[in-house]
């Protein structure tokens, strides 16, 4: 049994990229804060972080937790396996193998068929199932909390964390040759003494594609600044550097989300370098590289990190999951970017377990969520949110120990052979991962975007739509009488349309009823709040009256105390006068005694002389 340090555990941390097919596409990367250099992240949340940054822990300062993952058994001694541990790292009563040199960015090899065609391989995949992709040659070092992006025919992996250390390499996977290669970067000349290793040594950052560049936003590193840095990688010149921004930049953070809407980058939440949780919204205008704070109203989501976010209809920012230092969330929040109002809609569909550190990507109107978990177990199901209807469904489930049931993995979308596929890489589930997994999502029918609005507005819209449906039905009946030939030809179509209209009418009436019930419930709540406010107002008036009387008493007491102080001050002079009088009295008494004695002596001699008595000698 080893005697290492047992620390609090978090099984989460995520990259969330998305599609790169049109200017409105976006990619989100969310990862929990960076781990300390002296503690391997198999067990985390000790509250420590080297270089003054956060530990990335969700339970720092609270009770200590064991990792939800158990290490795989080591190979038999002397087996000669590549997995035979070179050193052991102990945590409590558990040991983990570390057989990767920190100075190397590649590990392991895997052979595949030289004549394998990625297009044919992808087209043979079953829908909604994860399959590992055969890879030729060396693979990059396993990691988690990295950034990932697909540009043209390559998957780029930037930075990340392994064994509590920041990684600074950039790896590229070519979908055509099915091989990995390391991207050697050079610094922009005006950067100075920085090197690519120092600049890109980051974990928990986000990345988006902008033109021919990859923009890296935020994250934690050894060189944390006060404001959020924006770094870039030019994929044509292979240069990297720092983007100069204007405006009030947000504080540096990790585990945030970044969503692209046109030329605006929406940043939400995260955890700063002092482990403070955030729920603010900042916008970076990429045309001018200027920051601004978005002042949103209504009920803001609780501060969180390691959540995911997506944009729907170029108007709504949808935020899902994440965690605080002690609570994991499964809620869904929507920010209307036009009205700047938050809302929390009720979501039908499958029951969703709380999670953080998951990865997510959008394809069309479907939002796919992979991995993540809480402090008890990892999430093995792959979820899909129908964004227009806001309905959850479970697509597939992997085994508990599967690499996809991990934290800190990334997921992107890639266009191959005319279809869009999900591409997942990396993560940590008790073991660091460096495999690539593919999923062929089943095509889904598109729907009209859902407009998030108040119940009253929804009821009004439902009434108008129902009236329109009835008018349309009457119009169809009219044409049936005026044009009997068309009636015979289109009777089936008209019947189907009428059935659809009637069904829509039922749905709208149901929505209207629900809206009225919601309004009634809100009125009751408002009345309850008003009653509570009235009672509190009365109590406040009573307390204010008591306070006024107490103030009056205090003023009187202060006046009495002032008078008593004056009397006490006069006591000193009175005591002095009394002392003088005492001395005068004592002197007077002495004088009187002397005078009495002299008088007695004089009267005695006269009597003796008169009586003729002899005087004593």
TrEMBL record:
Q: From what superkingdom does this record's organism come? A: Eukaryota
Q: Does the keyword DNA-binding apply?
A: no
Q: Where does the record place Low complexity bias?
A: 606-617
- Domain called Acyl-CoA-binding: residue spans: 495-595
Q: One Pfam family, please name it.
A: Kelch_KLHDC2_KLHL20_DRC7
Sorted alphabetically, the keyword list is: Kelch repeat, Repeat
Mind telling me which InterPro entries this protein's record contains?
ACBP4-6_C, Kelch-typ_b-propeller, Kelch_1
Disordered: region residues: 43-85, 593-617
What's the protein here called? Acyl-CoA-binding domain-containing protein
Q: Which organism is it from?
A: Eucalyptus grandis
List the top taxonomic levels of the source: Eukaryota, Viridiplantae, Streptophyta, Embryophyta, Tracheophyta
């Amino acid at each position: 049994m080893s005697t290492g340090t047992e620390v609090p555990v978090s099984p989460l941390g995520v990259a969330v990229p998305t599609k790169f097919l049109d200017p409105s596409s976006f990619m989100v990367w969310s990862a929990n804060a960076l781990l300390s250099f002296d503690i391997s992240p198999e067990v985390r949340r000790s509250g420590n972080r080297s270089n003054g940054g956060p530990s990335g822990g969700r339970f720092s300062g609270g009770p200590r937790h064991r990792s939800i993952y158990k290490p795989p058994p080591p190979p038999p001694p002397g087996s000669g396996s590549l997995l035979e541990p070179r050193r052991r790292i102990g945590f409590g009563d558990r040991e983990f193998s570390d057989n990767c040199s920190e100075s190397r960015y590649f590990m392991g090899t895997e052979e595949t068929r030289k004549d394998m065609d990625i297009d044919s391989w992808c087209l043979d995949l079953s829908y909604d199932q994860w399959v590992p992709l055969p890879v030729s040659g060396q693979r990059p070092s396993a990691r988690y909390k990295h950034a990932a992006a697909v540009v043209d025919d390559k998957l780029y992996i930037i930075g990340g964390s392994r064994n509590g250390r920041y990684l600074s390499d950039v790896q590229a996977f070519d979908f055509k040759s099915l091989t990995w290669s390391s991207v050697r970067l050079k610094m922009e000349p005006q950067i100075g003494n920085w090197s690519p290793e120092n600049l890109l040594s980051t974990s928990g950052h986000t990345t988006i594609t902008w033109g021919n560049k990859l923009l890296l936003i935020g994250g934690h590193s050894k060189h944390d600044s006060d404001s959020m840095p924006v770094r870039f990688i030019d994929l044509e010149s292979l240069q990297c550097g720092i983007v100069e921004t204007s405006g009030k930049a947000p504080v540096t953070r990790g585990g945030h989300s970044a969503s692209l809407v046109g030329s605006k980058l929406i940043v939400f939440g995260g955890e700063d370098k002092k482990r403070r949780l955030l729920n603010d919204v900042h916008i970076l205008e990429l045309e001018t590289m200027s920051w601004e704070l978005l002042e949103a109203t209504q009920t803001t989501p609780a501060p969180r990190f390691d959540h995911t976010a997506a944009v729907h209809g170029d108007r709504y920012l949808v935020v899902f999951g994440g965690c605080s230092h002690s609570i994991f969330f499964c809620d869904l929040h929507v920010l209307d970017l036009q009205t700047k109002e938050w809302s929390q809609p009720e979501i039908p569909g499958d029951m969703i377990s709380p999670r953080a550190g998951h990865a997510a990507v959008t394809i069309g109107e479907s939002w796919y969520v992979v991995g993540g978990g809480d402090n008890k177990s990892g999430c093995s199901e792959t979820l899909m949110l129908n964004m227009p209807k806001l309905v959850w469904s479970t697509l597939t489930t992997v085994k508990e120990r599967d690499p996809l049931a991990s934290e800190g993995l990334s997921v992107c979308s890639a266009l191959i052979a005319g279809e869009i596929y999900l591409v997942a890489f990396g993560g940590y589930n008790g073991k660091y991962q460096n495999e690539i997994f593919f999923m062929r999502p089943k095509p889904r029918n598109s729907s009209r975007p859902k407009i998030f609005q108040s119940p009253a507005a929804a009821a009004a819209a439902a009434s108008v739509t129902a009236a329109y449906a009835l008018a349309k039905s009457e119009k169809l009946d009219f044409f049936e009488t005026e044009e009997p030939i068309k009636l015979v030809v289109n009777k089936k179509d008209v019947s189907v349309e009428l059935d659809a209209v009637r069904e829509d009418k039922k749905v709208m009436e149901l929505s209207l009823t629900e809206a009225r019930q919601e309004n009634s419930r809100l009125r009751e709540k408002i009345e309850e709040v008003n009653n509570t406010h009235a009672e509190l107002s009365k109590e406040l008036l009573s307390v204010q009256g008591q306070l006024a009387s107490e103030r009056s008493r205090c003023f009187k007491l202060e006046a009495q105390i002032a008078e008593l102080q004056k009397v006490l001050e006069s006591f000193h002079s009175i005591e002095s006068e009394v002392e003088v009088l005492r001395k005068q009295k004592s002197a007077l008494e002495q004088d009187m005694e002397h005078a009495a004695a002299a008088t007695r002596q004089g009267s005695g001699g006269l009597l003796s002389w008169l009586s003729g008595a002899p005087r004593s000698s």
